[in-house]
Amino acid sequence: MFCALSGEAPEDPVVSKVSGSIFEKRLILKYIAENGRDPVNGEDLTVDDLLTIKLSNKFIKPRPPAASSIPNLLQTLQNEWDAVMLETYQLKQQYHKSRQELSNALYENDAAKRVIARLLQERDEARAALASVNTTYTASAPSGGDSMDIDQAVPEGQFAELAVAFRKLDTHSSALSSLRRKRKPAASWVVKDQVRTLAQIANVTVAKATSVTALDVLAHTIAGEKRELLLTGESKGKVNILDRKDGVKSIASVTAHKSGINDVLWRAGEGDELSFLTASVDKFVKCWSVERSEGAGVRIGKAKYTVRTHGGPVTALTLHPTGDYFVSASLDATWALHDVHSGQTLMRSTPVGSGYTAASIHPDGLLVGLGRADSLVTLWDIKSQTSVGQFEGHQGAITSISFSENGYYLATCASGEPIVKIWDLRKLTCFKTIEIDGVASDAGVSNVRFDYSGQFLAATCGSQLRVYNVKPWEQLCSVTEHSDIITDFQFGPDAMYVVTSGSKGSVIVDGVASD
Question: What beta strand segments (E) does 444-505 contain?
Answer without folding.
Answer: 445-450, 456-461, 464-469, 474-479, 486-491, 497-502
